[in-house]
Specification:
Largest sheet: 7 strands, mixed
Radius of gyration: 21 Å
CATH superfamily of the largest domain: Type I PLP-dependent aspartate aminotransferase-like (Major domain)
Structural class: alpha/beta
Shape: globular
Bound molecules: pyridoxal-5'-phosphate
Number of strands: 15
Mean pLDDT: 93
């Protein structure tokens, strides 16, 4: 089956209701899990920040390009996650590279969850350190790999928190247990922030972990936060090393000031809309429970992403047709780390109705 970009109407357009169904096809792609990309408060923050003053500062923050709006974004995300410090960057991809560049001179090995996102894998390579992969989610093998390192080793274990391509969470509680005191656990929680944990604080909150000085997180504003930008969040010493050693921070300009303002606004919206996070979580559980237990279906009732890897082209076509007939734009994608021929990646949003989620699950059940 050829890859097919979503061809439905603009997701920002009006969505009327006809016979109890919305008249426009429902979009299931992307990562706007909380629907914040349409939030009027964030739009206002964005517009206000652009209405006067410069659109951007015209230089790296390490030279003359700093601005209070960037520092406010950092304070907001650090406080939200209960961590001492944060560095704000242009994108989540750059935030991940910044973690790797910051710790390259301190760590001795990168121990890499083999399903980590491309930016984590690219960051691992960029360190120039030996990279030791372990099977995703397998804390026992991780423990064995760590146990074989010299006593003087300072390993950097690197993983996604929530897996953005297939749903599910890395067992970072078990990863932390396996990690020596001298090491770091780097969690790219791009898909965890805003989706898991009672307050949407990500995988660390979802797994009930307390503060841990070995933990460093990279994240993006482009998914549940509905805007853009990226951040590294953790201990002050690690964040200082981002500022002093990471080319992704030092040699790249921060994003336009409107991005920083909207990012800060999004953290405020997350605090004020805990019901939206809970709603997403309850839709995710409802959807997951209604899906058939089949090898083609990958997901986890705790997370809003489900992948369907069709067994063959005929099954892919059946699913495509069934989704269209049920009023959904089939979210067929190709992406690094997924099957090369493509797959369906379904990202639920808190703005869907329970009826829509039930209809979606029914269409999939019938087509499979
Ligand atoms: C796990 C993960 N990390 C990082 C990123 C990059 O974030 P950004 O789009 O802000 O560069 C993505 C984006 O797809 C992602 O899925």
């Amino acid at each position: 089956m050829a890859a097919r970009a979503p061809t439905g109407p603009d997701p920002t357009g009006p969505r009327g209701s006809r016979d109890g169904h919305r008249s426009d096809p429902v979009i299931l792609s992307g990562c706007d899990y909380l629907g914040l990309s349409l939030d009027p408060v964030l739009r206002e923050a964005w517009l206000q920040a652009s209405a006067s003053g410069p659109l951007q500062t015209g230089a790296s923050r390490a030279t003359t390009g700093d601005h209070p709006r960037y520092r406010r974004a950092e304070a907001a995300i650090a406080a939200f996650l209960g961590e001492p410090a944060a560095a704000f960057l242009a994108t989540g991809y750059l935030a991940s590279l910044a973690v790797a560049q910051a710790l390259a001179g301190e760590a001795t090995h990168v121990v890499l969850d083999d399903a980590a996102h491309a930016c984590v894998r690219d960051g691992a390579t960029l360190t120039g350190l030996p990279v030791l992969p372990f099977p995703s989610g397998d804390a026992e093998t991780l423990r064995r790999v760590l146990g074989r390192l010299p006593r003087s080793a300072r390993p950097l274990v690197a993983t996604d928190g929530v897996h953005g391509l297939r749903g599910g969470m890395a067992p970072i509680d078990a990863y932390l247990e396996a990690l020596p005191r001298s090491g770091w656990l780097w969690v790219d929680d791009a898909h965890g922030i805003g989706t898991v944990g009672a307050g949407g604080r990500g995988t660390v909150e979802a797994l009930g972990l307390g503060p841990d000085p070995r933990l460093v997180r990279s994240l993006t504003g482009s998914k549940a936060l509905g805007v853009a930008g990226g951040a590294v969040v953790g201990q002050a010493a690690v964040v200082e090393r981002v500022r002093s050693h990471a080319g992704a921070y030092r040699a790249s300009s921060a994003p336009p000031l409107a991005v920083a303002a909207a990012f800060t606004g999004a953290i405020g919206r997350m605090r004020r809309l805990p019901g939206r996070v809970r709603r997403l979580q309850s839709l995710a559980a409802r959807f997951s429970d209604a899906l058939p237990a089949r090898p083609e279906v990958l997901g986890d009732r705790r997370t809003p992403v489900t992948a369907i890897h069709p067994a063959d082209a005929a099954q892919a076509r059946r699913l495509d047709e069934a989704l269209r007939a049920a009023g959904f734009v089939p979210p067929w994608i190709r992406y690094p780390g997924g099957p090369s021929d493509g797959f369906f990646r379904i990202a639920l949003r808190a703005t869907l109705t329970a009826d829509e989620v039930d209809r979606l699950a029914r269409a999939i059940r019938i087509a499979l």
